[in-house]
Amino acid sequence: MGLVGAREPGVGSRARGVAHRSVRLAAIAAAVVPDVDFLWSRHNMETHSLGAAVLAGLAVLAWTRGRDPRLALAVTLAWASHVLFDWLGSDDTPPLGVMALWPLTSEFYFAHAYVFEAISRRTWLPNFWSHNLGAVAWELAMLGPLAVLAGWWRTRRP
Ligand SMILES: [Zn+2]
Q: How many Å apart are CA 113 and CA 7, to the nearest integer?
């Protein structure tokens, strides 16, 4: 990481902490950015693809002038996780699924696994809040233990 390398005792670990926080924040941003496509009414299309995930990683690599491949990989994997989870999720608005393999193909892929509930944007429905809060609770129940496990694994390393 570019921020590591100070000679003063304690400064290196502080810099590493800042670097880890930066990677974490970039990964969180990359995991939610694909839904920006709501702004131009092309939801689940190009931004919901592995091609876009790779492009995001390449953009980070170019932005850091090749000095931070770890950050680029984190952004790519976080973006790809969004594609994976939407593929595994529920969808009731055709075309179903995500354009996962764009730009190789514009076909939509849908796992029919229904692991996650669709998030409703129909604010006028009486169950809008209860449905969405339930969907978020389910996602936290599914992914929370994995996040805790990943956090534990990361902190146990020297
Ligand atoms: Zn999405």
A: 52
